[in-house]
């Protein structure tokens, strides 16, 4: 069975979370490279208008289903995705894996106080986690960043520059970097630093984090409007394919 499913021409990884992590762990041990991107309705809709973005997403090793809209679309299309892996949830799982397997991690992006605060809190949670180093998101010399990551000996690199800037940084420099796994994590450093609170667990369990973020930050309404457009497009595609 294929581990890839396509929704509106954008690929999504169908591996359940435990098998996904096992695959990532094997890749690190074999010194192979892989990029992780979070696939959500907003990115899928953006990819309909941007072929380069679509190619970037589809060329990634792991395209995690981020958002309940993706699992709904999968069900509509007769697919097998019944879970969701948020970007911050994926980062948390990778930190647990790195702590257990002693993989070295590097943090790049966000403000100095945010990335340092995130590292401090993460180190408290995982005292034995090998943190290789960090660089804030305001460093302008890209070669300096590349050298810093390579000199750190990192196995996993978290990039928090916002989308699509973080994905473009990874795509542009992955061949020059020595680490195995790269994840664009958006605002996850803000969550780990405590600057931004994650949705309560009850919202997380039912896939309604997006709703919590909306009611606590109504300015996100424009971004959330991508969800109904996405579901309508996915349903229309399903009807077309079934004819």
From TrEMBL:
Catalyzed reactions per annotation: UDP-N-acetyl-alpha-D-mannosamine + N-acetyl-alpha-D-glucosaminyl-di-trans,octa-cis-undecaprenyl diphosphate = N-acetyl-beta-D-mannosaminyl-(1->4)-N-acetyl-alpha-D-glucosaminyl di-trans,octa-cis-undecaprenyl diphosphate + UDP + H(+)
A Gene Ontology molecular function term of the record: N-acetylglucosaminyldiphosphoundecaprenol N-acetyl-beta-D-mannosaminyltransferase activity
Metabolic or biological pathway: Cell wall biogenesis; teichoic acid biosynthesis
A Pfam family assignment: Glyco_tran_WecG
Key word Glycoprotein present: no
InterPro entries, per the entry: TagA_TarA (IPR034714), WecG_TagA_CpsF (IPR004629)
E.C. designation(s): 2.4.1.187
Keyword Plastid: no
Keywords, alphabetical: Cell wall biogenesis/degradation, Glycosyltransferase, Teichoic acid biosynthesis, Transferase
One GO-annotated biological process of the protein: cell wall organization
Top-rank lineage group of the source organism: Bacteria
Family statement drawn from the similarity comment of this UniProt entry: Belongs to the glycosyltransferase 26 family. TagA/TarA subfamily.
Role summary: Catalyzes the conversion of GlcNAc-PP-undecaprenol into ManNAc-GlcNAc-PP-undecaprenol, the first committed lipid intermediate in the de novo synthesis of teichoic acid.
Identification of the protein by name: N-acetylglucosaminyldiphosphoundecaprenol N-acetyl-beta-D-mannosaminyltransferase
Organism: Jeotgalibacillus malaysiensis
Organism ancestry: Bacteria, Bacillati, Bacillota, Bacilli, Bacillales
């Amino acid at each position: 069975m294929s581990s890839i499913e396509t929704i509106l021409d954008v690929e999504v990884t169908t591996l359940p979370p435990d098998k996904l992590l096992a695959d990532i762990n094997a890749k690190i041990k074999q010194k192979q490279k892989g990029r992780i991107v979070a696939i959500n309705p907003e990115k899928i809709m953006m990819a309909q208008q941007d072929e380069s973005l679509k190619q970037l997403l589809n060329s990634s090793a792991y395209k995690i289903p981020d958002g309940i809209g993706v699992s709904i679309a999968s069900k509509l299309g007769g697919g097998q995705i019944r879970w969701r892996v948020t970007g911050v949830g994926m980062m948390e799982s990778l930190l647990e894996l790195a702590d257990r397997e002693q993989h070295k991690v590097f943090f790049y992006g966000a403000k100095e106080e945010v990335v340092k605060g995130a590292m401090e809190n993460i180190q408290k949670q995982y005292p034995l986690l090998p943190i290789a180093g960090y660089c804030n998101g305001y460093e302008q010399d890209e070669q300096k960043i590349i050298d810093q990551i390579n000199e750190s000996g990192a196995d996993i690199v978290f990039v928090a520059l916002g989308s699509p800037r973080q994905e473009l940084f990874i795509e542009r420099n992955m061949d020059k970097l020595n680490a195995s796994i790269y994840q664009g994590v958006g605002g996850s450093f803000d969550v780990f630093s405590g600057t931004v609170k994650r949705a309560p667990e009850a919202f997380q369990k039912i896939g309604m984090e997006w709703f919590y973020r909306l009611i606590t930050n109504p300015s996100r309404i424009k971004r959330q409007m991508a969800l109904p457009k996405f579901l309508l497009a996915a349903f229309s595609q399903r009807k077309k394919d079934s004819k």
